[in-house]
C-alpha cells in the first residue's frame, strides 16, 4: 500500500519538510495557492521577502543534512550568494561598542535575497526528490481529534469543486498567515496556547548597486539598543547577488524608518554611527524603498497540547515567527524540518506518537530563538503582549555583559557567535571560558571607531557625500 504525505505551503519550510519526508513515503504533494516564479523573483506570499534575511550556520547545516549530496551551500554560492565570516567578515556596532574582527573566522552565514534562497532550495528539492507541487488552496483538515487523515482542497482560482486529498501525514508549513487554530478547531482540537510579543518593528529596505571597488566591503550592521528606554533603531548594508547591496533599516514603535528616499538617507545618518549613511550616500539606488510591518513574534505552543492528533505536524512560521531583526527564522524552520526527518527515519512516517515527538523536537530550536528575540523585544518601550519580568531583566543583564565582553574578548565573542548561529543552545554562554570572560569583561580596550582596514576606509571616504 503506497503512502502519501501532503505539505501545505511551498515556501522554505514547506520545501524542506518535503525533503524530510520524501525518503520515507511514496508520494509527497506540496499545496501552494500562489504562482511560483521560475527564477529568483519576489512572490506575494512572503510579506518580509524584500527585506534582509540571514541564513545562519546552524540552518545551513540542517539544509545540507536534509538534502545529502545535493550541495545546497555550493548551489547558493554559485547562484551569487555570499558567505560571511562572523569572526572577520562583519563590522558590527552593538549597544556596548564595536565588535572586533579576529584572525579566527568563526561560523559563517550566507547572505542573499530571500527570493534567491527560496528558489535555490525549491529547485534543489524538486530535482533531488520526487516531490510535486500542486496549485491549490488548503481549506480544512480531514479526520478527527485522534488522527488527521488529509486535507480538503479547492482550486486556487476558486473555479471548481473542493476535493479531499488523503494523506498518511500532513504538514502545515503555510507560514505566518497559517489558519492552524481554525483548522484544528475543525477536527476537534482546542486549547492551543498562543502568545504574541510585538515591538512594532518596521523594516524599510532599498537595493543599491555595489560601487566600483567596494565589492569586498564587509557586512555592516548597526544594532538597535534595547537598554536605552527609547525606540530601537538599526541599519545594515548586506551584500547579495548580482553586485547589489541590500540596505535595510529597522525601528521599533516610535522610531520607524520612513518610506521616502530622502528620509531613508536621513535616518541612516541619525543612527548611533553614520557609517551606513556614508556608504550609501555615494551609491546608486536600483529600487525604491520597500516597507514591511509583519514583524511580531508569534508562538503556538502545540508541543504543550493535552491531546495532539496523529498524522499532523506544524513547522516553520506556522509554528513560530520571530522579529526578523534577529535573523533566525529560516534556520529554525530548517532545524524543525530536520527534526521531522530524524523522527521519520527512526520510526517510520506512521508510527504511533510520531507527530507529538516531532513537535517536541521542533520546539527546541524555537525555544532558543524565542529567548533571543523576545528577551530583547520586551525591553523596548511600547512593546505589546509582554513586559520585562525580573527573569527577563536578569537574562538581559547577563547578555549585555557578554556582549560588552565580546567587544574585546575572543572566548566571549566565540560564545556569542555559536548561539546566534544556532550551532549551540543558550547554555553555551555559561561554559567556563565564556562565563569567565563575561564576569571579567573585555581584555582589550574598547574600539573608538569602526574596525575597518585602510583600504576599507578609503572606500568609505570615496563614497561619502555627506561631508562627514
From TrEMBL:
Coiled coil: none annotated. Gene3D superfamilies: FAD/NAD(P)-binding domain (3.50.50.60). Residues 1-19 form the signal peptide. The keyword Nucleotidyltransferase does not apply. GO terms for molecular function: FAD binding; monooxygenase activity. Residues 5-341 form the FAD-binding domain. The keyword Nucleus does not apply. Keywords: Monooxygenase, Oxidoreductase, Signal. This is FAD-dependent monooxygenase.
